[in-house]
Write a structure and sequence with these properties.
- There is one protein chain.
- This protein is mainly α and 59 residues long.
- 44% of the residues lie in helices and 0% in strands.
- It is elongated and about 60 Å long.
Length: 59
């Protein structure tokens, strides 16, 4: 860390509970970002895929 960084006013774990309750971060590989530029497109594709998997598994 550089000496010029001042964390004296920081609060450790300030957002820890919020992240543990509702965040699920997934990193998309760079070669897929043209096809899936945002969360909406990723979620839409995963919902379609999950439906195909359910039909294939008979659920």
């Amino acid at each position: 860390m550089l000496d010029e960084y001042d964390f004296s006013g920081g609060v450790r774990g300030k957002y820890a509970r919020q992240y543990s309750e509702g965040s699920n971060i997934v990193v998309i590989d760079p070669d897929l970002t043209d096809l899936f530029p945002d969360s909406e497109s990723v979620n839409k594709a995963l919902r379609h895929l999950s439906e195909i998997i359910r039909q294939h598994n008979g659920r």
